[in-house]
Design a protein that fits this description.
- By secondary structure, the chain is α/β, with parallel strands linked by helices.
- The chain has a single domain, classed as 3-Layer(aba) Sandwich (Rossmann fold).
- It contains five helices and five strands, in the order βαβαβαβααβ.
- It has helices at residues 17-31, 59-78, 92-102, 118-122, 125-132, and strands spanning 6-10, 34-41, 85-89, 107-112, 136-141.
- Strands 3-2-1-4-5 form a five-stranded parallel beta sheet, sandwiched between helices.
- Strand 1 (6-10), helix 1 (17-31) and strand 2 (34-41) form a beta-alpha-beta unit.
- The protein is globular, with a radius of gyration of 16 Å.
- Its main location: cytoplasm.
- Homodimer.
- It is found in: Cytoplasm.
- Residues 4-141 form the UspA domain.
- This is Universal stress protein.
Length: 144
Amino acid sequence: MSHYKKILLAVDFSDASNHVIGKASELAEECDATVDLVHVVEYYQHEFNVDVYLPDLNIENELLQQARDKLHKVAEDMGIPGTKKWLETGSPKSEIVRVATEQECDLIIVGSHGRHGLGLLMGSTANGVLHHAPCDVLAVRVPE
């Protein structure tokens, strides 16, 4: 596996993320590869057919700031420079693939929960990335 030189690690800050981060660190060291980090804040926008007053709680900005802080902490712990961190908004599948393409990564590492049935039917980030990635994808099984 020593041919990997630029790894994109997708993190979601779940409890299982540490397992995926550990695997990525091991592989990067083994391959002497650099690591870029990406986290995608997914928004669910709903349209209302009636006038509804929603107070301005600045939720979007708060979510982004929390994600930015967590991404900075992971990058700091892994020794990843600030120029190698990507905080995106939108569809995780699409944004991870887009960043990997733009940054010319040769491996994407993403956690996988091994969903079955309805969970698989609804689609997972790992599955979406696997089918659209411009490079190899390592789906790390995370403990349940």
